[in-house]
Amino acid sequence: KAGVTQTPRYLIKTRGQQVTLSCSPISGHRSVSWYQQTPGQGLQFLFEYFSETQRNKGNFPGRFSGRQFSNSRSEMNVSTLELGDSALYLCASSLGRVPLMYQETQYFGPGTRLLVL
Amino acid sequence: GESVGLHLPTLSVQEGDNSIINCAYSNSASDYFIWYKQESGKGPQFIIDIRSNMDKRQGQRVTVLLNKTVKHLSLQIAATQPGDSAVYLCAEMPYSGGSNYKLTFGKGTLLTVNP
Fold this sequence. Notes:
The complex is a heterodimer.
Chain A: E1 5-7, E2 10-13, E3 19-24, E4 31-38, E5 42-50, E6 53-57, E7 64-68, E8 74-78, E9 87-94, E10 107-108, E11 112-116
Parallel strand pairs in A: 2-11
Antiparallel strand pairs in A: 1-3, 3-8, 4-5, 4-9, 5-6, 7-8, 9-10, 9-11
Chain B: E1 10-14, E2 19-24, E3 30-38, E4 45-51, E5 56-58, E6 62-67, E7 72-77, E8 86-94, E9 104-105, E10 109-114
Parallel strand pairs in B: 1-10
Antiparallel strand pairs in B: 2-7, 3-4, 3-8, 5-6, 6-7, 8-9, 8-10
């Protein structure tokens, strides 16, 4: 079974621009979570999507947004980029059982390395 | 204020030795824990997980121990190999009913295996 895939793998943008990152979860997985990883803050949770709805959200400004499609693929968007948005953006997928009886393992993709100049 | 890089704890071992990586978690409501391995330039790779109704779980060459009393997690790697060199991340997740998928990560430990 193919793992989580993310595109693009590398991206260079300038301040003020916007960017869209894409994530395809493991086949059959319905929950997609996004994380930001930086040397200063480590891995931090951005948001989680299930059935095209955002269920959980971390403490990031509204410039960070996302969506999920009916095939469970997800995109995240960052508008008005700042230098501090330079990071590795990681997507993780999990089965997304309903009802959720217990927490599920999250499997990560390779990430998208974003550099803001 | 000025941000500083995370100071990663480091562990250096000889090939063939056993490694023990420790993690202190913060949320007493957390009842699911995962260890990930992250190699340079790659995403975290799942190693092993454990739920709070257990205190030990074994995988292939790895064992995770959970001590809920002191909120401590450890990962033991037997017969450590050069390919085990990576950053090891522990993650915790509380169960709040329904849909809490937020993993909270520790800062990680850098394991270096010397041949």
